[in-house]
Write a structure and sequence with these properties.
5 helices, 18% strand
Length: 171
């Protein structure tokens, strides 16, 4: 996946909850996410560590570049020290430039259009269940034109297991 393997981490506020997700720029897989009443540096640090573990990158020399906005959870001491401890390069985009986080912004747009706008959440539990189900749908059944019309998990498995030819991405 190249020397500049990139993942994006973003936290988005909704009336009942906050969603923080981490996406692989190459295959559009939401590697992991946090849904909660708060979205703090400790949550971002744990999420990053879990994502690296899931992608088997925790103990490798080549680490991804993590790109975030300048939210308080991403400029926190705990998140920065976790990035350093994990040897992960942390890039922060300049303020008011969401286009530099286009992949995660696109996912949030899909989530808004296909999930949030179709459901009224009556409780945190209801929101958690619905969003978890939608993310599962996105990962396993949502077809991406940029991924040869495959869902993210299928594309990722084809790249890893069957060696389909990788393509260049612009970040």
């Amino acid at each position: 996946m190249g020397n500049r393997y990139q993942i994006r981490l973003y936290c988005r506020r909704r009336p009942i909850f906050l969603l923080m997700g981490i996406i692989d720029v190459y295959d559009r897989v939401i590697i992991d996410y946090h849904i909660g009443l708060t979205c703090e540096g400790r949550h971002a640090a744990h999420l990053l560590e879990r994502a690296l573990w899931k992608r088997k990158l925790l103990n490798t020399e080549i680490k991804p570049v993590i790109r975030t906005d300048n939210g308080p959870q991403f400029i926190s001491n705990i998140f920065e020290s976790t990035c350093q401890a994990l040897s992960v390069e942390h890039e922060r985009i300049p303020p008011k430039t969401p286009n530099l986080n286009a992949h995660i912004e696109a996912f949030h747009s899909i989530l808004e259009r296909d999930c949030y706008s179709k459901y009224e959440f009556e409780s945190y539990t209801d929101a958690h269940k619905t969003i978890t189900e939608f993310i599962d749908f996105y990962l396993h059944r949502y077809l991406h034109g940029s991924l040869q019309d495959m869902p993210p998990v299928q594309f990722h498995e084809m790249v890893v297991n069957m060696g389909i030819a990788p393509f260049q991405i612009r970040v």
